[in-house]
Design goal:
This protein has 15 helices and 18 strands. By secondary structure, it is of the alpha/beta class. It has three domains: 193 residues, Class I glutamine amidotransferase (GATase) domain (Rossmann fold); 186 residues, Rossmann fold; 97 residues, GMP Synthetase, Chain A, domain 3. The two termini are 38 Å apart.
């Protein structure tokens, strides 16, 4: 990416929100360069790329709390357009003399917002007077700063938006970046183009060029790289990208940790042959299963798996010529859920929060700033077949985090068979490509049933199917009843020791997509 493409973009100041990277991704959807900086960044660093606008993210802290995250007051003088979202709005209000206080009830989830009649805010071009938005806050702006115009309120009459300094500084209590907010893209587009005057110069093709250059600069001309391939989209795109840069200095290792889906090992190896990747297959299932014997805590599972992955890679690296770099397909949702972006730890991903501190290799993570849909868009630029890029996401720890409770070969085989039936049924119904992720979960719950007039006491399988664009939020897919019914009947009839099937209809939030 050239300096001209970076100049004139949007800077997002991160106050610890789990949606910060999602803001950046929304900006990039409009082909405008976006850069995330921590709120502690000095003023000269913020202004380094001559941004056309600044967005202040949400965050978990209180703007009126002790040692609350803050910004340089000169950023709010109107010389550069600023949009504060959630905590960002409260910070603007507090910094400029408004009153922020703890709300009586707080607002969380979908909330109706009503805009003031004849509001002149340029943010609202093409936006109806009433929309449903995504809220997630306890504090509220009780009184906007002097000179500010309140132009939106929620149905509970909480201030939902204000504007000041001729619209150069604005605040939104809701999250326009979240898919659940109606007209959220329009609001952000209005800010980016109509208020900031940014230009659409950022292209994914340019990202590939820039990422390739960074890989070359990092690895150098002689160092070898080892890549842990999972069979998923992320690690495969990363491997193909790096392979194009360093050629046969990349060795890929596909580890069968014993937690793969049915027949996945053979299918994945065949696919990698077609992608011309040099892949070494390692069956480490006994090693992983032994280490996880008796372990039921999900965080402990992830950390054990993360450490073993690295140890296996280190062992294989020594056989392959002592690679100096470990290539991983880490993407940003992995990073923020593991607490590496300033927010709370939701779950440690084996390739982020589960990594040991005493690794022999340096990490190479070229996809770290991207979301899943961006990775899928990059795939065709690297000539990766479309049918592979549309595969549903699969967690690095695999079935270990879908088999709740104690792990063992018998329970894992039960889950594998049930999952294969579910996928086959949604595929036969023509639904696979319209679903972000579908899978089964084996619960640590047994229930009484009847089979052939005989009492049974069998395990329980949960079906999970979600729609999402970015894995940051997700909604349960309303599958046709006949698909659910046929799936449940087949699982109970064909999979030994399963006597009950239930359906998970929870969105994200409050749940995560995976159960562990």
């Amino acid at each position: 990416m050239s300096e001209s493409e970076k100049t004139g973009g949007i800077v997002i100041l991160d106050f610890g929100s789990q949606y910060t990277q999602l803001i950046a991704r929304r900006v990039r959807e409009f082909e405008v360069y976006s850069e995330i900086l921590p709120w502690t960044s000095p003023l000269d660093r913020i202004m380094e790329s001559n941004p056309r606008g600044i967005i202040l993210s949400g965050g978990p802290r209180s703007a009126i709390g002790l040692d609350a995250p803050s910004i340089d007051a000169s950023l709010l003088d109107g010389s550069i357009p600023v949009l504060g979202i959630c905590y960002g709005m409260q910070l603007i209000a507090h910094s400029l003399g408004g009153r922020v206080e703890r709300g009586r009830l707080g607002e969380y989830g979908r909330t109706r917002v009503i805009f003031s009649p004849h509001s002149a805010s340029a943010l609202l071009k093409g936006v109806p007077d009433k929309i449903d938005v995504w809220m997630s806050h306890w504090d509220e702006v009780a009184s906007p700063p002097n000179g500010a115009v309140k132009f939106a309120a929620s149905e509970s009459e909480t201030c939902a938006a204000f504007s000041m300094l001729g619209g150069r500084v604005q605040g939104l209590q809701f999250h326009p970046e979240v898919e659940s907010t109606e007209y959220g893209r329009e609001i952000l587009k209005n800010f980016i183009f109509d208020i900031c005057g940014a230009s659409p110069l950022w292209k994914l093709g340019n990202w590939v060029e820039r990422a390739s250059w960074l890989v070359s600069e990092s690895v150098g001309e002689t160092a070898r790289v080892i890549c842990g391939l999972s069979g998923g989209v992320d690690s495969t795109v990363a491997a193909v990208l790096v392979s194009r840069v360093i050629g046969d200095r990349l060795d890929c290792i596909f580890v069968d940790h014993g937690f793969l889906r049915k027949d996945e090992s053979s299918q994945v190896m065949e696919m990698y042959k077609k992608l011309n990747l040099r892949v070494h297959h390692v069956d480490a299932s006994d090693r992983f299963l032994d280490a996880l014997s008796g372990v039921t805590n999900p965080e402990q599972k992830r950390k054990i798996i993360g450490e073993l992955f690295v140890r296996v890679f280190e062992d294989e690296s020594r056989k392959l010529g002592n690679a100096k770099w470990l290539l991983q397909g880490t993407i940003y949702p992995d990073v923020i859920e593991s607490g590496s972006a300033g927010g709370d730890v939701i779950k440690s991903h084996h390739n982020v929060g589960g990594l040991p501190e005493d690794m022999d290799m340096k990490l190479l993570e070229p996809l770290r700033e991207l979301f899943k849909d961006e990775v899928r868009k990059i795939g065709p630029l690297l000539d990766i077949p479309d049918h592979f890029l549309k595969r549903h996401p699969f967690p690095g720890p695999g079935l270990a985090v879908r088999c709740l409770g104690p792990l063992g070969r018998e329970r894992l085989d039960t889950l594998r068979e049930a999952d294969a039936i579910f996928i086959s049924e949604i595929t036969a119904a023509g639904l696979y490509d319209s679903i972000w992720q579908a899978f089964c979960v084996l619960l640590p719950v047994r229930s009484v049933g009847v089979a052939g007039d005989v009492r049974t006491y069998c395990e329980t399988v949960a079906l999970r199917a979600v729609a999402s664009l970015d894995a940051m939020t997700a909604e349960s897919v309303r599958l046709p009843w006949e698909v659910i019914d046929r799936t449940a009947s087949r699982i109970c009839g064909e999979v030994p020791n399963v006597g009950r099937v239930v359906m998970d209809v929870t969105g994200k939030p409050p749940s995560t997509i995976e159960w562990e």
